[in-house]
Design brief:
Elements: H1 2-15, E1 22-26, H2 30-41, E2 46-51, H3 54-62, E3 67-70, H4 77-87, E4 93-98, H5 106-111, E5 113-121, H6 136-141, E6 144-147, H7 155-166, E7 178-181, H8 185-191, E8 205-208
Parallel strand pairs: 1-2, 1-4, 2-3, 4-5, 5-6, 7-8
Helix pairs in contact: 1-2, 1-7, 2-3
């Protein structure tokens, strides 16, 4: 509830996602899949999730994703943007979100927005990470960016209410994919997403006393 759920509830609120809107989610980790569920609960008509791991994309469908894009299969940026436009009536998403943590995805996400859309930046928390960026993408598209690192207190009771209402609607039982005893903590980190992004099957790992 804390980091992932309350943060995406607050983030999508700050980005101005509206009932009937469309959202593009870059990254299907713990934040991304819960953002898909929250977007659906907020009334989003179209939720698109992008990742490179088939298992995570399949999990995203269990959390409300209407469409998924595997970047290992749709390798060209222009083709991914074209798919997003196709699924959003030819205009692009109302909101696009970075839950990946690599700034290289940002220009693509902005391109996937409709004119007047909002880009939500949550994933890239590492200081010093940089990317080439064309400001005219924002100007000519009348687009904006919103950065979120934490959340206001009101998000916590809303997260609790969300869980109560949706505990059987979304695949929460599949969110924690691996459990490790405390004495295997080093193994847990080694096998986790942060150390093996290309092939890991872990969505979220938990230490069990």
């Amino acid at each position: 509830m804390n980091c992932a759920l309350s943060q995406v509830i607050f983030g999508l609120h700050e980005a101005g996602l509206q009932f009937g809107g469309s959202v593009v989610i870059q990254g299907a980790g713990g934040l991304g899949v819960q953002a898909a569920a929250v977007a659906k609960d907020m009334g989003a008509a179209t939720v698109i999730v992008i990742d490179q791991l088939p298992g995570r994309l399949e999990l995203a469908r269990g959390f409300g994703a209407d469409h998924v894009i595997n970047v290992k299969e749709i390798t060209e940026r222009k083709d991914r943007v074209a798919l997003v436009r196709k699924w959003t009536g030819g205009v692009g998403g109302d909101v696009a979100c970075d839950f990946v943590g690599f700034p290289q995805v940002i220009p693509e996400g902005i391109e996937m927005l409709r004119p007047g859309g909002t880009y939500l930046e949550i994933g890239t928390i590492s200081r010093g990470a940089k990317v080439d960026f064309e400001p005219a993408q924002l100007v000519w598209g009348a687009k904006k960016m919103v950065g979120v690192i934490m959340y206001d207190a009101w998000a916590i009771p809303r997260a609790l209410d969300f869980l109560v209402r949706n505990q059987h609607r979304f695949a929460f039982d599949r969110l924690i994919s691996h459990k490790y005893p405390l004495e295997q903590i080093n193994k847990a980190f080694t096998e986790s997403e942060w150390h093996n992004r290309e092939t890991t099957s872990i969505s979220r790992a938990a230490l069990v006393p």
